[in-house]
Automatic annotation (TrEMBL), chains A, B:
<keyword id="KW-0413">Isomerase</keyword>
<comment type="similarity">
    <text>Belongs to the methylmalonyl-CoA epimerase family.</text>
</comment>
<dbReference type="GO" id="GO:0046491">
    <property type="term" value="P:L-methylmalonyl-CoA metabolic process"/>
</dbReference>
<dbReference type="Pfam" id="PF13669">
    <property type="entry name" value="Glyoxalase_4"/>
</dbReference>
<keyword id="KW-0170">Cobalt</keyword>
<dbReference type="GO" id="GO:0046872">
    <property type="term" value="F:metal ion binding"/>
</dbReference>
<dbReference type="InterPro" id="IPR017515">
    <property type="entry name" value="MeMalonyl-CoA_epimerase"/>
</dbReference>
<protein>
    <recommendedName>
        <fullName>methylmalonyl-CoA epimerase</fullName>
        <ecNumber>5.1.99.1</ecNumber>
    </recommendedName>
</protein>
<dbReference type="InterPro" id="IPR051785">
    <property type="entry name" value="MMCE/EMCE_epimerase"/>
</dbReference>
<dbReference type="GO" id="GO:0004493">
    <property type="term" value="F:methylmalonyl-CoA epimerase activity"/>
</dbReference>
<dbReference type="InterPro" id="IPR029068">
    <property type="entry name" value="Glyas_Bleomycin-R_OHBP_Dase"/>
</dbReference>
<feature type="domain" description="VOC">
    <location>
        <begin position="4"/>
        <end position="132"/>
    </location>
</feature>
<keyword id="KW-0479">Metal-binding</keyword>
<dbReference type="InterPro" id="IPR037523">
    <property type="entry name" value="VOC_core"/>
</dbReference>
């Protein structure tokens, strides 16, 4: 069912410093910061040849990343995202397997339907599935 | 400098259960467990079309993953690995930028030289660089 690793999302306390360490020290192709108010984050994409890293920083009062940074002030991997052909079908199948699917499919940061799987069912790793 | 995302490594408390959730519920191609005594881990590879996920479980008394699982009993992302053309050159460049490179280049789990960057210099994310 799962296909490509779409992205690894890393929550960072200082977006500019994080972007600079990927751009400068690591020499990666790094895009400009992009506010995504609907998702409560500002995102910087690090474009790699086979996938991307998303640097996430809280935006607004109700950001899903704020609590994570309170628990992990230095930052850390927030979630991992895999592509699936059909998110609604994936949700049905995974719930039938007893896994907790967080919320109904919603339109994610890339304009495609996504779901999240509870970290407790995924070895402590918040896991996003995005319709490819 | 950095190229492909070589792998995401997830430390897991129960390797068989983790492998089964990727193989069964998520429908991924999952290899057999492989002991790597030199690195203190047993590894299961989840092969994705563009990269891989490595499920890590402690092996032996002095595993680098054991402390992580004590702090994160449910498991979690242990490190992220990017490919570089020359690990020794990368280490020199990154140290010149003031980043902490953990240990001299050593031969990693894939038989190639690797270094690790300190999580404090990488937004809380332990980062491996592997010579491609």
């Amino acid at each position: 069912m799962i296909g490509r690793l779409n992205h690894v999302a890393i929550a960072v306390p200082d977006l500019e410093a994080a972007a600079e360490s990927y751009r400068g020290a690591l020499g990666a192709r790094v895009g400009p910061p992009r506010d995504e108010p609907a998702h409560g984050v500002t995102v910087v994409f690090v474009e790699l040849p086979n996938t991307k890293v998303e640097l996430l920083h809280p935006l607004g009062a109700d950001s899903p990343v704020a609590g994570f940074l309170e628990r992990n002030p230095a930052g850390g991997v927030h979630h991992v995202c895999y592509e699936v052909p059909d998110v609604a079908e994936a949700a049905r199948k995974l719930e039938a397997e007893g896994m907790r699917v967080l919320g109904p499919p919603e339109v994610g940061a890339h304009g495609r339907p996504v779901i999240f799987l509870h970290p407790k069912d995924m070895q402590g790793t918040l896991t996003e599935l995005e319709e490819a």
